Amino acid sequence: MVGTRKRKDFFEDFGPEFFDNLEDIINALLEDLGESVPFVYGFSIIHRPEVDPELREFGNVSERFEDEENLFPSEIRDPLIDIFESEELVHVLAELPEIEKEDLLLHATAQNLEIRIIGTSEYSQDIELPSRVDPKSAKANYKNGVLEVTFRRCADEIPVEIEIN
Q: How far does CA 2 lie from the centroid of its chain?
């Protein structure tokens, strides 16, 4: 056959000894890292009519770090939180994987929702709600690592504790 040439195998240049030691190299690298948690980092953008878009970060790795210690992720990460509004309701969704329902505490006012995690991993976040809500109307549900809290809009400002179903 004229004009055909045999394609060279890409891995030919590495030699067989490279692949013989590859598993040992990977195991040694993993041993050097020790026990670690996965790196999680992301952001969500909330855009409301007539308001500048709001950028929210989530994860266990900060986008900015000044020293090498902050390079590694913490075991506690900021959850991904989304807020949805309708004419009558405000919905808050928070991604909280690997957290037990019994370790969650929720407190609400007309303007804020505080999510606290107790137990082995302590965490707290105060979420400013986009409009005033009736904290007594709150309904919370936690399933498959997702917390959903729904409020009715109103003008009262009385803090209440929310029971999780």
A: 59
Q: What whole-number distance in Å separates Cα of residue 112 and Cα of residue 148? A: 15
Rounded CA-CA distance 103/122 in Å is 9
Give all domains of the chain, ordered by start, each with its CATH number.
12-74 (no CATH), 79-165 (2.60.40.790)
- Residue by residue, DSSP assigns the chain as -TT--PPPPGGGGG-HHHHHHHHHHHHHHHHHH-S-----EEEEEE--TTS--EEEEEESS-S--SSGGGGSPPSS-BPPEEEEE-SSEEEEEEE-TT--GGGEEEEE-SSEEEEEE-SSS-EEEEEE-SS-EEEEEEEEEEETTEEEEEEEE-S----EE--B-
Query: 60-99, pLDDT tens digit by residue?
Result: 655 554 444 554 445 555 678 889 888 899 999 998 887 8
